[in-house]
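S.,

As promised, the nicotinamide-adenine-dinucleotide run. Input:
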Amino acid sequence: MKISVIGTGYVGLVSGTCFAETGINVTCVDVDQEKIEKLNNGIIPIYEPGLETMIKNNVEKKRLFFTTDLKESLTDCDAAFIAVGTPPGEDGSADLQYVLKVASDIGKYMEDYLVIIDKSTVPIGTSEKVRKTVKLELKKRNANIEFDVASNPEFLKEGAAIHDFLKPDRIVVGVDSERAEKVFSRLYKPFLLNGHPLLFMDIPSAEMTKYAANSMLATKISFMNDIANFCEIVGADINNVRKGIGSDSRIGHKFIYAGAGYGGSCFPKDIKALIKTSSENNYSLEILKSVEVVNQRQKKVLPAKVLKHFNNDLKGKTLTIWGLSFKPKTDDMRDAPSLVVIEDLLAAGAKVKAYDPEAMEETKKILGDKIDYSGDMYEALIDSDGLIIVTEWPEFRVPNYKVMEKLMNNKLIFDGRNIYELQDMEEFGYTYYSIGRKTIKGS
Ligand code: NAD
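Predicted complex:
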């Protein structure tokens, strides 16, 4: 089989590489010439564990190619995946200009029957817009070429993307033709060996499934953050509450950790987009609106604790951030809570030093020299008045508290991810603020 994956970002690059891993001939296409040049020179533009080795292996085996030439990629192609960005527009709706540009280019260049697949997260009804766009281009060319449109939303998690793609919990496919269904069955057969299902459904349901999944996950997070804040007020401990409710098999342990708010390239924009689609259809998704409000508030909880500790005056203070990416094991800074924390600290006059194992280059693109970047986690603590943990990278979990106290001006930690035990903090004499738990006053 031969496929084209258009858009070589976090989703397109991982999907294309994983398809190549099964023996399929894959061409990844992007309009970003620099990105394609890098890939053709063996430089991987994003950080995703395991991706570099897998790309190199498939390039060597001549199954994985990178190009800016969409037309060439469609030669003898069975399926074309659209995996470009769908960023939020001003009003919160998903901006479809990139998806529809690709659809129109496919219509311009396709020569044979093709399954055109939306892998980008797109509002309900987008597949129809893609179909119309392709038809229009074919009509302009007077070309009578058959094609099908399908929706195949992606559920991979950055940081575990390869595992998620190779061993998916389920694959969701919206189709309305048997011919396209057969193409999907062949494409995805190697990924179903773990027994998880390939779910065929109508196209609007597939499009809705992606938004509903992200909305449910964001709801769990905001729910726990809301309860965590209330725990602090009434003297309960959110970690105990989490274990208590997570043990109920109807609830489960996953995605119920309180923290600094959700961020990333998906949840914030997808929640906004679904709220927007509902209002366009004269329906108000009340729960989701609250999920969004709680999350905006949650991103402010950590900086508010810092400000309160220092009586709202951070002038002359140096604060250290550990963890910048929106979650561990990625360099993705889109909508990262760390940006809100840093903005509030800078506005209150603080100097900010930061360390992240992978996301410093991406952060520099956004914040430039507004903050200082440190070579390692301990260097970032030199002369610091307090440490703020925003992203729970594994290497932060068991630090050397004795070394830390020698480097810092104060034994002070604000933990936005509850990664330390209260008992340890008491033992080592730190003043320790976390989310939804009591504050430890240091010695
Ligand atoms: P991304 O920004 O990392 O990548 C998008 C790529 O598309 C960029 O490299 C861009 O240059 C390219 N592009 C734009 N216009 C193009 C065109 N006309 N032709 C070819 N390439 C073009 O985005 P992403 O994070 O990979 O997300 C892609 C889609 O997948 C979004 O809809 C997103 O919501 C969805 N999604 C993302 C994730 C995730 O974890 N990142 C997970 C599931 C779904």
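The CA atoms of residues 43 and 79 lie 26 Å apart. The radius of gyration is 24 Å.

- D.
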